[in-house]
Design goal:
Elements (H helix, E strand, L loop, with lengths): L2 H24 L2 H17 L9 H31 L9 H18 L4 H11 L5 H8 L3 H18 L1
Length: about 160
């Protein structure tokens, strides 16, 4: 059975169950429907779909990851909107600029996901705050050589993501 046929069978057999499970988690039928679709899209775009003996357990695992990303995006969006609220109105970005910045933040968050926290912090301090290696080292309490290693690790992640 081809992967798309396998996902089609999973969809037909378990979509309504998964949507109900997500609805109980979220309390919102529209968000549950969206995240159920995202779960199946993730399966369709996966390199391989394993042969399943417990399809609901598998779907639950994938849906939990989708749900985690959903909550993470909400947290990121809230933090961004709070930062915008703190800006003077004269320098606040337009709605279009806000959308572009938020998309960029989400993409950057996904790109850096999985890197150790000190590596992410060093990268963000260098890229967003423009700090020097010495300033980053002082702020994080690490040596300049460690800062360089952290930034190289983050740069490699960015390079291979392209």
């Amino acid at each position: 059975m081809s992967p798309s046929n396998h996902v089609e069978v999973l969809y037909v057999d378990h979509h309504s169950w998964l949507t109900g499970w997500l609805r109980r988690k979220l309390g919102c039928p529209q968000s549950a429907a969206d995240l159920a679709q995202d779960t199946f899209m993730r399966l369709l775009t996966a390199r391989e779909t394993p042969t399943l003996t417990e399809p609901r357990a598998f779907l639950t695992t994938v849906a939990k990851r989708v749900l985690f990303n959903h909550y993470r995006r909400q947290d990121l969006e809230r933090a961004y909107l709070q930062a915008l609220a703190d800006l003077p109105e004269a320098v606040a970005p337009s709605e279009e600029e806000r959308a572009i910045i938020l998309q960029t933040l989400v993409a950057l968050d996904q790109l850096l996901d999985g890197l150790p926290s000190p590596v992410k912090r060093a990268f963000l301090l260098a890229q967003l705050d423009g700090l020097s290696y010495a300033q980053i080292g002082a702020q994080l309490g690490i040596s300049i050589a460690t800062v360089k290693r952290h930034l190289n690790k983050a740069a490699l992640r960015c390079y291979f993501a392209l």
